[in-house]
Design a protein that fits this description.
There is one protein chain. By secondary structure, the chain is α/β, with parallel strands linked by helices. The protein has six helices and eight strands; from the N terminus they run αββββαβααβαβαβ. The strands form two sheets. The protein has a six-stranded mixed β-sheet. Strands 1-8 form a two-stranded antiparallel ribbon. It is globular.
Length: 203
């Protein structure tokens, strides 16, 4: 029978081998450069995000509008009660589009980090969930009212400003809207986005 000391000696090299294997596997992952992109002159860009936390599905939404100079135009955030992440993402986009109509913007770029939902909206697909389909139908009706609309996916690293607004929404008792000047929590992210900062994402 091996003593306790011998057992520990046998285990140490195995632990090291596992660590080395994990590192080697990470080294071979492809790094994708991700950056927020400015819209063309005359266009308004909306980045939106939804958040759902814990078993209670406490949800919130947020979004940010910027122009071709990456200047902050408007931001919004609010808590929406209980909802899963899919509904939260759609609610964030729907609220953003309502603000698009209220402000009379006609050439709009919509961007979010939930790729499946972006594909559903861009390709006008049908879904089984009646609640999700209701949101999608409302979104598509608003999009039809716009002169031009671009819908794209971006990885989370390029959607940090919208994510920050969604996180702010968790702590709000009533809907919030910021015009012309973003909240202090967003200043650093806004500056980095405007400068074209690239973040590497490992696949």
């Amino acid at each position: 029978m091996l003593s306790i000391t011998n057992i520990l000696r046998c285990q140490r090299p195995i632990t090291k081998q596992i660590s080395v294997r994990i590192l080697i596997r990470n080294w071979h992952k492809e790094a994708i450069p991700v950056a927020w992109e400015k819209p063309e002159k005359g266009w308004t860009k909306l980045n939106f995000d939804g958040s759902s936390k814990g078993k209670a599905n406490k949800a919130s939404i947020g979004g940010v509008f910027r122009n071709h100079k990456a200047e902050f135009i408007l931001g919004y955030a609010e808590s929406i009660g209980r909802a899963n992440s899919t509904v939260a993402e759609l609610a964030a986009l729907r609220r953003g589009l309502e603000l698009v109509l209220e402000n009379g913007w006609n050439d709009v770029w919509l961007e979010g980090d939930a790729k499946t939902l972006i594909d559903i909206i861009a390709k006008r697909r049908q879904v089984k969930s009646s609640e999700v389909q209701r949101h999608i139908s409302d979104i598509n009706l608003i999009i039809l009212e716009l002169n031009n609309c671009l819908v794209t996916h971006v990885y989370r690293e390029g959607n940090r400003a919208a994510d920050k607004f969604a996180q702010i929404g968790h702590h709000m008792k009533k809907p919030g809207i910021w015009r012309n000047v973003p909240p202090d929590e967003l200043l650093a992210i806004m500056k980095e986005d405007a400068e074209g900062k690239t973040v590497l994402r490992l696949r």
